[in-house]
Structures are given as structure tokens and as C-alpha cells.
Amino acid sequence: MNGRGWRTGLKAWLLGLLIGLPTGHAQAVDPVVVLTVNDVISPASADYIVRGLGKAADEHAQLVVLGIDTPGGLDTSMRAIIKAILASPVPVAGFVAPSGARAASAGTYILYASHIAAMAPGTNLGAATPVQLGMPGQPDPGANPPAAPRSDKTPQAPTDTLTHKQINDAAAYLRGLAQLRGRNAEWAEQAVRQAVSLPAQEALKLKVVDYVAADLDGLLKQLDGKTFNAAGHEAQLHTLGAAVIHHDPDWRTQLLSVITHPSVALILMMIGIYGLFFEFVNPGTAVPGVLGGICLLLGLYALQLLPVNYAGVALILLGIAFMVAEAFLPTFGVVGFGGIVAFVVGAVILMDTDVPGYGIPLPLIIGLALISALLLVALASMALRARRRQSVAGDAGLVGSVTPITAVQPGNPYNGWVLLQGEHWQVLCATPLHAGQGVRVVARKGLLLEVTTAETVPRGG
């Protein structure tokens, strides 16, 4: 009996070991991919996140953690990110971190769209009221971004039908995301209509977010064993001990972020215009033309991705046209300095400053205006010096020249030959001439120069 029981126990132990082999603890655990957005929501960040989600699916990641710290951004970029999250076969955990970060404006929409919404202590979200771009009463065709946080919590009454429609559309959009993820839809609507905000602990109590974690490790511990629906498929997470892969923004994303910065876009346009201007003034230089063409195209590319005010663009182009025209028109600086004024005004209103992170610093505008003014002054002074300088070509260059006689006509000492401007000229003098004698040109008659004797001859003549 004892021997038979021992053998039975050994068989049971071996059977249990075999059954336990296929469990998740013995299998290789799929990795966790981490993406981060620490700036305004822009075309560059949207491209980075969309490509990052696709790469995570290719790597068979079990979870994507999207670190969020943003003041907001462009509506078109925000919606591109949300569409990618909703279609992702890999669950996405929006994580507002580290402490002190925020998911304001567009970040609130992205957090609501994520399969998992988490925040670190000391962070906040909210203030999702849309802001209209462009001229008052006119919609901007390319953007309708959420606004930056406001200190007051009193809803602003819509000033026109368009604003009312935008607020209703944004409220319905965020409420739909809340219902999709089972979160607080009433607060979502308040965030749009009243621009309210919440800290992390209150957001957890009101079921606006699902988790509060101090760091990434704490979040992964809380998510271990949880099951989420991603693109119609149930996915159970095994995040304890999973490899964490950080996909930081690559060089392409960083380059796009630099180019699409409003200040850089403005500088690129100025370099492009001045480069082409100097190429037109001095054809064949090549370098200014090539550099100017590249910078102008990059600047225009950046502007089409930015929330520009097209009246500002028109004023900038008008100002640049005036400054270029100043080089060709005798207006004594009136057109040029008028162009500087137009440029400054256009640069001030170029970017809609209601969109967080897209303003142009006033010192940069003043600096570019001063550089333009200095260029105009330099061009004007060069033109005045060129006008006052004695001509060295044609009749004006010949008359007054002093040069030695190279030869005297045989039998006629009053006629001789001189070398001027690379050509041999026949000269006529009232007094006899001899070779090597210095003469001064006083007049030109056809191919004959009238000269008088000169006491000295220029060195090297």
C-alpha cells in the first residue's frame, strides 16, 4: 500500500507538472511598448503615435502605454490619433505622467479614447472646450482644436451659430468616447461646455479615469491579469515581468516637430525669400537661390500643417513684396519700411495664440523686423555709394583718364596712341607728343580722343 501510494503520488506530481507547462507563467510574455508625447498635439506627434501603434502590433505587444503630457493641440491631429487608438488590436493605456503633467484640451480626448485611462498623482486633465481659428466669424478649414485651460469654470455663451455647432459637436464626440469606454459621460460634457478640470484623485473618484499609479511599474502591477476588448478581441494582460520597450520619437518625428514650430517656419520663410531675392539681383550666384528655394518650400510646408491665420500670411507676403520692391524702385525707403510694418503686423497675427504652444515670441518678430530694416539700410547705402562713384566705363570712364603715350604717328607728332580700358585709342594733342609722355583725356570724338599733356602718369599705367 505504501509503495503503491508513493507511485500514485509521483504520477500525480508529474501530471501536474506537464499540465502546468502551457500556462502563461511558463510561456514567453509579450512585451509592453511605451510611447510618449510631451508637447502639443501636432501632425508630427500624430504621425509618431500612429506609426508607433502599428509597430507595436507588428511586434505582438500585449499593451501600449501612451505617456501623455500636453497642453492641447490641433483637432485634425487629435482625431487621427484617436482613430488609430480605436482601431488598434493592442490595448492602449493612456497614462498622464509624471507628476506635474497634464492632459489638457486635446489630451483629454485622447485619454478618454484609450482602452485604459490612468493618471499619476499631481496631474490633471480637462478644459476641452473647442476654439475657433481664423478671422472672427470665419471658420478655419483645417483645424478646430480644443482650448487651453481657463481659470474660471463659468461656461462662455456661444457668440454665433458656428461656435455653438462646434461646442455641440465636441461635446457629443467626447461623450461618445466616454460611453464607449464606460467612463463618466456627464463630466466629459462639462469639460467641453464649461472647460472644467480635475486632479488625479478626483478623476478616479468620479470614474473619469480607471487607475492612479505613481509610475509605470505601479501601473503595470495594477493591470496584470485584467482583460480588455481591443478592436473586437478580448486581450488578457500579463504585465508582471513583461519586457518594456520604449519607442522614443525618431529623427523624422523630431525633424517634423522642429520644422512645424511656428518660429522656425517664419524664419525659414524669411531665409527663403531673401535667398531668392539675392539670386534675382545677382543671377548666377547659385548658393542663395538653392538655399532660398529649399527654405521657402520647407516654410510653406510647415505653414500648411499649422493653425495659421491667413490674413497674417497675406500681410507677411505683402510686406516681403514691398521690401523686395524697395530694391528696384526710387521710393527713398517708403515702400521698404511700409513692408516692414506689414511684416510685423502679419507675424503678430500669423498664429492663433488661442491654440496652446503655437504662439510666436514677440522678440523673434522684432528681431526679424530689425534685420530686415538693417538690410534695407545697407542696400540703400550701397546704392548711394554706387551712384556717387565715378563711372569707369564708357565715355565717362575715358574722360579724365591719365595714361602714357605708347607710340607717336611717324611724321605727325601731334597724333599718337594710348592704351585705355584694354583697347588702343588714337589721340590728338595741341602740342607735340613723344613716347612715354603722360597725357590726360579731355574729350572723345568718335574713335579719336583729345588729350592734353599731364605732368604725372598713374603708377602701373
Q: Helicity level, as a percent range?
A: 40-55%
How far is it from the N-terminal to the C-terminal residue, by CA?
A: 132 Å
What structural category arises from helix and sheet content?
alpha/beta
In what range is the share of β-strand residues?
Answer: 15-25%
CATH superfamily (homologous) name of the largest domain: 2-enoyl-CoA Hydratase, Chain A, domain 1
* Overall pLDDT score: 79
Which blocks of ≥5 consecutive residues have pLDDT under 50? 17-26, 133-158
InterPro entries: ClpP/crotonase-like_dom_sf, Membrane_assoc_protease, NA-bd_OB-fold, NfeD-like_C, NfeD1b_N, NfeD_membrane
Keywords: Hydrolase, Membrane, Protease, Signal, Transmembrane, Transmembrane helix
Subcellular location: Membrane
Biased composition (Pro residues): 138-148
Brief sketch in words of this structure:
The protein is an alpha/beta fold and 461 residues long. The protein has helices at 2-20, 43-58, 75-87, 106-113, 161-181, 185-193, 200-205, 216-223, 251-259, 262-281, 287-304, 310-326, 334-348, 362-388, 394-398, and strands spanning 32-37, 63-68, 92-96, 102-104, 116-119, 124-126, 197-199, 211-212, 227-230, 233-236, 244-246, 402-404, 407-408, 415-420, 423-429, 438-445, 448-453.
Please tell me about this protein's structure.
The protein has 461 residues and is α/β, with parallel strands linked by helices. The protein folds into 3 domains: 27-248, Alpha-Beta Complex (2-enoyl-CoA Hydratase, Chain A, domain 1); 260-388, no CATH class; 394-453, OB fold (Dihydrolipoamide Acetyltransferase, E2P). The protein is built from 15 helices and 17 strands. It has helices spanning 2-20, 43-58, 75-87, 106-113, 161-181, 185-193, 200-205, 216-223, 251-259, 262-281, 287-304, 310-326, 334-348, 362-388, 394-398, and strands at residues 32-37, 63-68, 92-96, 102-104, 116-119, 124-126, 197-199, 211-212, 227-230, 233-236, 244-246, 402-404, 407-408, 415-420, 423-429, 438-445, 448-453. Strands 8-5-3-2-1-11 form a 6-stranded parallel beta sheet, sandwiched between helices. A 6-stranded mixed beta sheet has the order 12-16-17-15-14-13, with no helix packed on it. The longest helix is centred in the C-terminal third of the chain and has 27 residues, at 362-388. The radius of gyration is 38 Å and the shape is elongated. The protein starts with a helix and ends in an 8-residue tail after the last strand. 37% of the residues are buried.
